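Summary for the lay section of the report: proteins are chains of building blocks that fold into shapes. Here we show the chain for Transmembrane sensor domain-containing protein and then a coded description of the shape we predicted for it.
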Amino acid sequence: MTKLIVLKLDGDFQQGFRVTLEIGAEGERPETEITGKLPSAPELVKQYSGWQATYRSLGKVTRELKTKRVRIDGSLRKLRDECRTQAKELSDRLNSWLKTESFFSIREKWLERVSTSEPVRVLICTEHQQVWQLPWHHWDLLERYKFAEIGLATLEYAPQEQKSIHENKVRILGILGNSEGIKVEEDKQQLENLPGAQTTFLVEPQRQELNDQLWEQHWDILFFAGHSQTEGERGRIYLNQSDSFSLDELRYALQTAVRGGLQFAIFNSCDGLGLAWELLHLHIPQMIVMREPVPDKVAQTFLKYFLQAFASGKPVYEAVQEARQRLQGLEDEFPCASWLPVICQHRSAVPFTWEELRASKTPVPLTQLSRPRVSLWRRAQTILAASLVVTSLVIGARLQGILQNSELKAYDTVMRLQPHPGIQDKRILVVTVNDDDVKQFGKPLSDRTVEQLLTKLEKYQPKVIGLDIYRDTPQKEGWDKLIERLRKSDRTLAICQVGESNGAPAIDPPPQVPPERLGFSDGFIHDPPNDTIRRYTLVMDRSAESPCTTPYAFSFQLIRHYLPATTRYEFNPGKNLSINSIVFDVLKPYSGGYQLPHTDMLGYQLLIDYRSPDRFSQVSLTQVLNEQDSDLLKLIKDRIVLIGYVGASTKDKHLTPLGKMPGVIVHTQMVSQILNVVLDRRPLLSPWSSLSNTVWVWGWSMVGGILTLTFCSPRNQGISIGVALLANGCICFGFFTQAVWVPLIPSALALVMTGGSVAYIVRTYARAT
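The coded shape description reads as follows.
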């Protein structure tokens, strides 16, 4: 009995391959399985490319539709010798690679378990097409066996199932394509002489004619002679003088032919590995192709030898081995001719003989088959059911908080990517206390320095001054004078700390400052797990225990003092607040990507729509104290002025989606954001409602199902899902630039999960039918 040896190579030539060897009797489960490794071998690919370039430069008339170069006899002989030399070097390098220490255990297990007297069929399985290109038939291990032939396969294992009735003729569809410069009539004659065959020929047909034949008739063998080539990893055949196409462009017709009983394909044309790669993904069980451009004489001779051996009763692999080895007689004129024919197959396909093919059950007419082509209604049901289940799972996981961290990370990424206009907000000035100021004036700043700063700022008539520096206790000299200024000035606001929202201790306000000129400083909220600030509390209930009794945030107090006294404020707890009838919907426990307990969303919380800090005019403490009057007047008059520490030594720095940012700048961001909404009528950054989010996720879930049913091959399905993911990201980003937070992670998950689910359902249904 023939031994089946399966060698699975998973990896690439840059990183190396993880190798699995399986050995067992043909048609039975493997008796032996062992793993090993093959090291990286980029030089092997380079060696192959060198041989390939030399081989292709020989310039003989081949079945590849390209211009050939003509050489004088002396040059041609030299090229032939060089091709043979490089072929020998490539074979030697391949064998050296297959003798590396990490592969030794596989080699030894093979020799231990397989007798050299046994007929052997070897399958090289990989997802890396370059592995297919190597001359595996020159592996020294195979030379120990009289009957041993190599077949190529992918790693995918899919059982081949066909419905059929008995018929005693092998039905062959012979396609004679573009024959410019070659003689395909000899191929036709060889097929006509086959015993027990019924052959239909299409000579340079139109694509629709070929499509109809594949749909309307059932075939055992598909034969093509003419011009073909591989582009990247895809094959292209030239059907006639004006039409060429990749096999994927006829995928529905080919899949129908497979379901109708197509078992074997022969592409007696050039450069066929790309064709084989696509045919395997279209589930054609077995095929023969030429790995490189094939001279016309070699193609005709191989077909003659193969059909003779196959029709005489030899199995496919043995017939190919015999025909391939007989091509060696042409290698004085055509170097490496015996390298060209190669078998490619699905891992689950079992080789057959000509008589088995004649006597096998071949398909019933397609009109009588219950084909696994899913009806439009069944497709709609599948997509609907899968999308509803996946949407429920994704939304359920979201409500449990499983997606929160990933959603917030995606939010931060989009926040960083969105364009930040370079136009400065001329309503705001930030007076910074930087490291140079600290060196000169000390830290904390003395009360005298702060009082001098406030005095000078008020001189230039700002609308309001916000002191983002705590003054609950005296700092050096000047305390009384500073407190008097804070108490009397109607345009200077001070801060205190409630000490609840972020777990920090409470900090008293400066004494005697009235509540209407106090704001709490801890309005920004640190989100787990890394304490990033994305939310800001504008208003909260007064705390009975905290000395900081103001209900308003520092930024909100600045806004109230900046806007006209006639401005109307309305507060609807748990819903929204409005300023001059402009509604600000507050965050709720399940807003956007947040899934938080109710206690974490108390007060009036908004998302911070961060912009580059460069949007805000900044001037240092030293500059204010030393600057000329005319310059300061332009900077300060009628503006909101905030004062705070920004140096590297300050502890008042917080992580934001844009990186670490001083607290005074975070307050400034919120002030600018609210003014943009109220005065400039810009949209407020807000998440969608829960209902809108659910519909959005369901919509993308449907897209995943539709794409999977639209594209049949796993490769095209993967590409389409990838494009859809990119489109999803771009659309979500577009919404974000318009101040709408749309769920990116849940919709992407739903897209992929539904696509995968529908693909699994369809494949399971196809096997069952």
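Put simply, here is one thing we learned. The mean pLDDT is 90.
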